[in-house]
Design a protein that fits this description.
507 residues; mainly alpha; 2 domains; five-stranded mixed sheet
Length: 507
């Protein structure tokens, strides 16, 4: 039985870890919105969707925009950054829970925190998107299936079905992990569970949750599936070689973790050589040695093989959620007699990495525009654009601005920053924003914005509105200063307001 002093040491260690973790989460949630003058691209895009509460959007399923919308309403500009950090925290907790089912708790804890050595969990996660939203889903799927196989309770299969359904409502690539899990069941002795009702109940629940989006897909002529196919269309001259480039990018994102482990191995060499061999081995649950390998490596290798076989273009960032179990794999690999000497060095190396990447990320957000002499997406004058839009509309109309159209990025910045959040009419295809109907445009008008020196030749929805109703319009331009003087001159934005007769402000 552990002594009182050992319990006290454990408590203090846990308390210190909780303090460090809290400071880290708060820093990455509070500082980025203070150092950025505009929200990231994917955040702006998802917020323009989330306010509409649709069962699908032309790029993705709906769950991530819904959750982001709620966090933005609750926490304002901090909301997207806090949501990203909570996704990471949930991922680490679920990885730890799964690790506790495969190995001793201390080893599982080490594997969970080492996950932060994968670069995807740091700076790229500042921009909440569907890839970040998948991280806790992948970890939850890994844990849930393992709990089902070890305990076999019906409620655990129900949880697995719910997680799988919510995952498919987050992004279709969750199906890659589900496929790997199904293959694990079919190709191992675990196939015996298929004779029980649990797996089939989980499948029914997953399909039931996914059914509303599936109906939306059918109604929209499989719009988001078509977009996914276009994104995967190869743009390179050697598409099958591009699959290896994807794999190389995933390895590069593991470089910090590899350096942390390498440094710990080097600096603990003498102690490891002197340590007696412990029979505990590597700590993996003896009955399921392959499960962790399937989760940690299967999806990434599967995507690489699919890319090589089909010639589809693979985006590096698609790999973000696939490596939730990399740290756990490292922890499982370490022999037990190495742990005592390596554990403090691994944790110190991880702390150095997180401190370094935090400082670099903050510095880049604050001064990156001046160094590059051009703005990043987070350096745009979002508040000023929204103020100009509101003032321009109020000058010509006595009703509230209902819809902003035109350049997707500019229109998105404006709609997200305005307190009453107008809808956005996405350029290119009227199916992309079905919430802006012709009747709505006729009743409320719209503000059309675009950058450059002249108006585009046409904007089909608004051209149709003009030709059918003869709706009056007014136009002008804004000269907006860049927040950090990133370029030589101000940002020029042209606008055109389409004003319904009953809404027009008289001169």
């Amino acid at each position: 039985m552990p002594s009182t002093s050992s319990w006290l040491k454990r408590f203090l260690a846990l308390h210190n870890f909780a303090m460090v973790a809290t400071v880290y989460v708060l820093a990455w949630s509070l500082l980025p919105p203070l150092l950025s003058s505009s929200l990231p691209l994917d955040v702006v895009e998802s917020l323009t969707w989330g306010r509409e509460w649709q069962w699908g959007y032309y790029k993705h399923p709906p769950l991530a925009p819904w959750v982001l919308q709620m966090f933005y309403l609750a926490f304002g500009k901090m909301g997207p950054f806090l949501l990203s950090q909570l996704c990471i925290a949930a991922t680490l907790w679920l990885v730890w829970r799964m690790g506790c089912r495969l190995m001793v708790r201390e080893r599982a804890f080490l594997g969970a925190v080492l996950t932060m050595g994968v670069a995807y969990y740091t700076t790229p996660a500042l921009e909440f998107n569907h890839n970040v939203a998948q991280m806790p889903v992948w970890a939850a799927l890994g844990y849930s299936l393992l709990a089902c196989l070890q305990d076999g309770r019906l409620r655990q299969w129900i949880v697995l079905g719910i997680v799988a359904g919510l995952g498919m409502l987050t992004k279709y690539s969750v199906a890659l992990l589900l496929f790997c899990q199904v293959m694990y069941l079919l190709l191992t002795a675990e196939r015996r569970v298929l004779r029980r009702p649990g797996p089939w109940l989980a499948l029914v629940i997953m399909l039931a949750l996914f059914a509303p989006h599936l109906y939306w897909l059918w109604q929209s002529d499989w719009l988001s599936m078509a977009y996914a196919g276009e994104r995967a269309a190869s743009a390179g001259t050697t598409p099958r070689l591009d699959a290896l480039v994807f794999l190389g990018a995933q390895a590069l994102n593991h470089l910090p973790l590899a350096l942390i482990v390498a440094a710990a191995l080097v600096f603990s060499r003498r102690e490891r050589q002197a340590a007696p061999v412990i029979e505990e081995g590597r700590g993996l649950h003896a009955s399921r040695p392959g499960y962790l390998l399937v989760l940690a490596l299967g999806p990434g290798l599967l995507v690489t093989l699919l890319g090589a076989a089909t010639g589809k273009n693979l985006r590096d960032m698609w790999g973000m959620p696939m490596w939730s179990f990399s740290g756990l794999l490292v922890a499982a690999w370490l022999p037990a007699h190495w742990l005592k000497s390596m554990r403090p060095r691994l944790l110190r190396g991880l702390m150095v990495w997180l401190l370094l990447i935090s400082l670099l990320s903050g510095t880049y957000l604050a001064y990156g525009a001046q160094w590059r002499k051009r703005p990043a997406r987070t350096d745009w004058p979002q508040a000023a654009l929204a103020q100009h839009a509101q003032e321009a509309w109020k000058a010509v109309a006595n009703c509230r601005l209902d819809t902003v159209a035109g350049d997707y990025w500019l229109a998105g910045l404006i709609t997200v920053a305005l307190p009453y959040r107008p809808s956005i009419l996405i350029a290119g295809d009227e199916r992309y924003s079905p919430w802006v109907t012709p009747q709505r445009l006729r009743a409320h008008g719209a503000l059309w914005v675009w950058p450059g020196k002249a108006a585009p030749e046409s904007f089909r929805p608004l051209d149709k509105l003009l030709s059918e109703t003869g709706m009056p319009w007014r136009e002008g331009l804004w000269q907006v200063d860049w927040p950090r003087a990133a370029t030589g001159g101000p940002l020029t934005v042209y606008w055109r307001a389409y004003i319904p007769e009953g809404c027009a402000r008289r001169p």
